[in-house]
Design goal:
alpha+beta
């Protein structure tokens, strides 16, 4: 079974909201999934992505492949977590 970490679209027409999920790559975009890893709201200016990096890293270590969009969201979440830890250290 090939696992993909991808976006699952929620929300109404014109107001997209996404859940970041680990899903079998054979299932449809909004279909069955294995686990919810976080959320992404493109309508917000800042703080639009909430992601559990530990769960994402666990799935990636098991061989899950993130989509291009999710890969960039993970990168931004890591940068935000690093900045937050630098602020709390000071």
């Amino acid at each position: 079974m090939a696992v993909a970490i991808r976006l699952r679209r929620e929300g109404s027409k014109g107001r997209p909201f996404y859940r970041i999920v680990a899903a079998d790559s054979r299932h449809r975009r909004d279909g069955r999934f294995l686990e919810i890893l976080g959320t992404y709201d493109p309508m917000l200016e800042s703080g639009n992505c909430k992601l559990d990096l530990e769960k994402a890293d666990a799935w990636i270590s098991k061989g899950a492949q993130p989509s291009d969009t999710v890969r960039s969201l993970i990168k931004k979440a890591r940068a935000g977590a690093a900045a937050a830890s630098n602020v709390s250290d000071a």
